[in-house]
Amino acid sequence: MSMSLHVFENNSRCPYTGMIVKTEPGWNYQGRQGGFCVDISRVGESIMYVQASGYADTHDQIKSLELHKKMSLSEFSTSRPYVQIQNWKGLKGATREARQLYIDYLKNNKQLLALYFCNISFMLRMSIKLGKRLNLVPFPVNIVDDYPAAVQKAASLLNAANLDAASPPPVRRSRWRSRPS
Fold first, then answer.
1. Could you tell me which residues are beta bridge partners of residue 8?
2. Which has the closest alpha carbon to 140: 126, 154, 160?
3. For the segment 28-79, what is each residue's pLDDT rounded down to a tens digit?
4. What is the CA radius of gyration of the chain?
5. 44 with 20: CB under 8 angstroms?
6. Pair 6, 42: CB distance under 8 Å
7. Residue 154 in 3-state DSSP?
8. Span between the terminal Cα atoms of the chain, in Å
């Protein structure tokens, strides 16, 4: 990705929850145009962490959602509920068709327990709030400031639902690195 985002090393620990982070080489996508990129990681046993940047057209969104589905099937089986965190720090926007594909994907995702958005622009914040008011999806949608807030809330939700074991204590930030701009 071209902007500064947090990147996990495989089998590192999240510095905010202590949960193990899994990444795979195939869990990222670089778009053809508009600089659209997606990186996906699994945090703990039941959190999908998605970082998106650039501008998504329909082709990019289709590829991104295929990646979401591939990762969720390999990591959460077909029945395990999970929480998704969307870090949109560098997301510039998406075509109307791409936005509709994303909404349809969310509506039809029976495993998604909750969705947390973080690092979003003012315009995306307004769009998400409108979608929440219109009840476009059948699960809670939350907006938080940043990744630490999102992952801590997701972990609390999962622990309250008895879906994740208690997290080990947080570790040093040395395993967490930022990508250069």
1. 176
2. 154
3. 999 877 689 999 999 998 999 999 999 999 999 999 999 999 999 888 877 7
4. 15
5. yes
6. no
7. helix
8. 8
